[in-house]
């Protein structure tokens, strides 16, 4: 009673301060349980979130592929979890995932170091085709991209893809002769970087071999930068990303700290972006200069004129060549007639490089991995490849149309190992309803491609590599597949579907056909079991260190 007497005797301002502190502490404690979001999503099951950090620690330590699969088994088709303070709804049902992808066209941004950038860098981030959420701008930009992936342009790219595969074959031949192993995942990374270099920028990077190209120094840096941007994409990349994820109110402070006292993660991310941006921006300016000087006047109607540009000229000459993505992009116009600005073009080329490099390399490496574990499937593929003709024969788009088993192998490998683990959408202006579920605006929605594509419900024997399930009319197709739309979504769906799909598939098929003309691959010990690959996943999926094989020449050379 005496103590109470002391308190009531205290001056009012002290009591008010005390009450304020108590209310603040109580709110801070309550906030960490995410009461509002939990209440709004109360009907959905999901793992219990830890105070403040939610389920982020588990997600980051196990990786999205593993954790979404485990949670899917426990919580079913639609469940929620908390990525720090952020509520996420996972749609673990193929038909619903497809519906969401078709009906929603906005994405949330990743919370890696990139989300802490300010000023021009932040603006630059927003105009890339992947990251933009402005619907009109997106529509306009996507149509500016499309000429690069039309049949005429792909015919030209097919030549460069053959060259890339030839260069890789030369390296593999040396390895085969010394019976040495190599990391085929990394090697494919060099190949896809070379192909992006010629298709996107019209420059010869030659990252693959010892005989360096004209831009070899830049090429080395580009490879490092592209790898680093992927490696620093998640919340664990920097000490400044995690606090903002659990308490978004801290983000402005984190931005300031990251700006003035960058840690290693921020420094690496900035450095990588600077390298990519300055290289691409230099090429954009060069391309613009050439265009103004009249070199690429003929590009006013890209879809037609792209055919006119000799691939040889594009390969040999220094600098940006006419017919490349970049030169087409800077001569493109928005739907309102406005020209594409240098910054916009640079951002698209940057996106091309990032989106087209590691994804295709992983698709290639996992296909070789699956085939190396299944000799009888590989034999079938070799027969199809040999039916094309000699081992030196170039492979073009018309040949690919006659190679259904190759396509089936690639599709099946991308089912088991989708390079993108999930796609995401975010209703940004209003709540979104799908099949009776109402998802509050601002919630992240994830469609777990990896989990859906390995689901027992849609695929019989889901863990097995059975390319035949993709061959029309085969017994395996009838027995093993339900073919539910949305159960194979390696390139996403809807208006935000992968724009580079045709390009990537052509590149992967040509490369595989050209390599299997001359080689088979023996998997190095310890990787037969998938656990040996130590799969790492955040947004993309890859082996921790790589995939190691010894190439074996099919005939003596
Ligand atoms: C095997 C290779 C590839 C895979 C597995 C892949 C996968 C994906 C996925 C899953 C998405 C998200 C789709 C969605 O949200 O619905 C996407 C978007 C995108 N991809 Fe790819 N991709 C590949 C290759 C490429 C290539 C080679 C390029 C560039 C030439 C590219 C450029 C893009 C772009 C720009 C977007 C954003 C499209 C938009 O938002 O409208 N991708 N990709």
From TrEMBL:
InterPro entries: Cyt_P450, Cyt_P450_CS, Cyt_P450_E_grp-I, Cyt_P450_sf. Pfam families: p450. The chain crosses the membrane at residues 12-33. Keywords: Heme, Iron, Membrane, Metal-binding, Monooxygenase, Oxidoreductase, Transmembrane, Transmembrane helix. This is Cytochrome P450. Coiled coil: none annotated. Belongs to the cytochrome P450 family. It comes from Coccomyxa subellipsoidea. It comes from the Eukaryota.
